[in-house]
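Troubleshooting: if your tokenizer reports a length mismatch, compare against these two reference records.
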Amino acid sequence: MTIGVLSAQAAIFIYKNDSTAPKAWEDVEHMHLAEGGIRGELHTNKSDFLKAVALWNAAVAATNSFLCIYSHAGVQGIAPKPTLEAVIDWQELADALPNGVQYLWLVGCKTQEALNNWQPLGRPVLPRLLATDEEFPWQPFLKYFAAEISIAPITFDDEMSEHLLRKQPSLAAHTKYFGRDLQPLP
């Protein structure tokens, strides 16, 4: 499933094949309407997902790009099911984003594992990465990506962690925003 134009500077890619995927897709459709258009894609196939992410990355200006990936995750990488079948390892994901992304949100399970593989962040993350450290039902967190991409009002980098903590404290406590130096941002 896809929504929005390929060249939209903000995108949400869902790599899920579980009961949370339909609600996550509803959130993507809502954001697309509310934010004046984003790119949204839902995938369950590894090669289709990697190809789609690479096409999007090639179609946008990296220095002003926003990407949220919602998936199960762990040491090996991301996967559409908690059993981690059809795993996209962290290097494969980085390779699918050769131009990098200005702001990358990795939402789901233990996405902070990416930090063990992307040192220094550099490519695929230009200056900012949001990642999670626990297994939770993360789908409700997706709608807050709209605060990251919205221009009405603009939420600045140093305000995002506080915004998320205020809006979704139980989940925000298990997210961190990282800069290129791999240090958590306030």
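Reference record two:
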Amino acid sequence: MEIKTKAYGPLTIEPTDIITFQRGPIGFEDKHKFVLLGNPEVIETLVWLQSVEDEELAFVVAQPRFFRPDYNPSVHLDELEELDVKDEADLLVYSIITVPAEVNKMTANLRAPVVINVKNNRAGQIVLNDDRYKIKEPVFVGK
């Protein structure tokens, strides 16, 4: 299947790589199909969460433990019901990254992670009720 992408232009992807959001990411609830683009060997570093439906809609995302090893939000499996999660080990958790002109001021949204069930490629964005995590958490603190 060929898609148009913001960062890479036209790409061929496998339909099995499509990640489906029940409601779409926050603010983009009408967009449901995405794909992760980047180096599969280092998927925890910065990658693109690219809309399959809109080439201009792509988020830079990263696994939060890459820059915040103590990240351990409390999410109950019932909050992930629409993802049909059977085991927490089946989950990938990403934070949406904001990359400003001054890259060293990059921030991550730790308050609303994107959660993907790798067994069925269902995804959702969950808003945590946890004051430990900010919407604009600096990525490069102490580095």
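Descriptive notes for reference record two:
- The beta strands are 2-5, 9-12, 19-21, 33-37, 47-51, 58-62, 91-98, 107-117, 122-125, 137-138.
- The chain has no helices and ten strands.
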